[in-house]
Amino acid sequence: MAISPTAEGFRAAFRRPSLTLAEMMWRWTAGATAAALFVFGLFEYLDTLPVTNGELLFLRTRHPYLVGEAIAHILRGSLNRAVSAGLFAALMLMVLWIVAASLGRIATVRVLLDYFRPAGNASASGVLDDGERDVASNVSTSAVLPALLRLNFLRTAVALAAAFGFVGASILAGFASPDASPRPGLAFLLFVPLAGLICLVWWALNWLLSLAGMFAVRDGEDAVGAISAAATLCRERTGAVFAVSIWTGLAHLVAFVGATTVASMPLGLAGVLPWRLVVVAVMLVTLAYFALADWLYMARLAGYVCIAEMPEKPLAPVLPDRVLTPPALLTTIDRDEPILSDIPNPLSPHAVSG
Questions:
Q1: Per-residue pLDDT averaged across 187-215, rounded?
Q2: 17 and 108 Cβ atoms separated by less than 8 Å
């Protein structure tokens, strides 16, 4: 019976909820740390802003121009320190994400390998035979961690390159709309395809590097070897890899549309309901969407592990060494048979009477 990696991936994510919890743990830890740093840093920055009596006077006038000038003068005082602190916090968050993502990937991939490789499950899923052993158990964490750190560093580098690419695309699009003869429509038409191309390249490279992490844990490959193994899997098993990616991507899209629709309901009732209730409802819907997105990611990762572990072609039946064939039917006539001879029988009555 043919194996569906997509179905096996969803089944593994459903049967192993600890995988989703482990994925949520490291992702949400990094996200909560980033959110806490942003909120506390923002309030701390606002507390350090000096406000003079003249700026208060401009703010109380409520004139748009005077209020804007007052705010610009207030923010200009310690903006350099805020930018320096923000860059340092972003650097530390990147280091935290790289380490957390590497450790989390080691834990999740090893659990998936144990799920698809045990002898008891092999007969049910047809992925492996009873004689194969878990290769990941022979690869130490100290040998896998450096490769994952390098791969995740490359992912952050690609994300930063994409951010700089957006800035470059905006600058190039701005050349089509100079101050002498502004044409914002043409600049927008030039920026959209460039931004789309940057997003496509970033997504492809990030996806390939993320897939390479599975081979770093599975086979103990270094960063270059893991990327090569991921590219080989995509080349040899293109249909299965695209099937898992497309189905999980469609499920993610449906989840995003559903979460957006549900979150828009309390926002539409913001004028009727208390604002605290609206904020709590939106936060709960957002957290539920993030949890479902992590579950779908684990289903996709489990599908990739299933593709890497299952044989490319079904095994041919093993024939016995000696095959006993039935004797061939006799299709010729034996002329030596007496009953078919054309010589008269000397013992027949006609021969005696003659």
A1: 92
A2: no
What is the per-residue pLDDT for 336?
56
Full-model pTM: 0.75
In sequence order, what are the residues at sequence separation of 6 or more whose Cβ sits closer than 8 angstroms to the Cβ of residue 208? 227, 230, 231, 234
Phi and psi of 48, rounded to 5°? -90, -5
pLDDT recorded at residue 80:
76
Q: Which pair of tokens denotes residue 252?
A: 């993610």
Give the CA dihedral 213, 219, 224, 229, nearest 10 degrees.
Answer: -80
Helices (H), 117-180: 119-125, 141-175
Instruction: Specify whether the CB–CB gap between 93 and 30 falls below 8 A.
Output: yes
Q: Which of 101, 110, 111, 299 is nearest to 217 (CA)?
A: 110
What pLDDT score does 126 carry? Answer: 41
Q: Using CA atoms, how far apart are residues 230 and 256, in angstroms rounded to an integer? A: 28
Q: What is the largest CA-CA distance in the chain?
A: 158
Across all residues in the chain, what is the average pLDDT?
80
So what's the pLDDT on residue 118?
62
Burial zone of 330 (CB within 10 Å; 0-12 exposed, 13-18 middle, 19+ buried): exposed
